[in-house]
Design brief:
Length: about 70
């Protein structure tokens, strides 16, 4: 019984992590889009945001494969 409740708690933590990562990706994409609309955009900053998005998407992919 304890084992089942522990698994349920772990699954809930995993779901929370997935949701948080997904929200982060959405937020970063919106921010990146808003920055791209500006005429003067620092390309290294854009690359940093693109890398952060990619990293979070890779983690989401790893989680979904488990």
């Amino acid at each position: 019984m304890y084992h089942q409740s522990r698994l349920g708690r772990d699954e809930t933590s995993r779901e929370r992590l997935e949701k948080q990562l997904f929200r982060d990706v959405q937020r970063l994409i919106r921010y990146l889009d808003s920055r791209k609309q500006l005429s003067s955009v620092d390309s290294s900053l854009m690359a940093d945001y693109e890398r952060m998005i990619l990293e979070r998407c890779e983690v989401l992919g790893e989680i979904s494969r488990r």
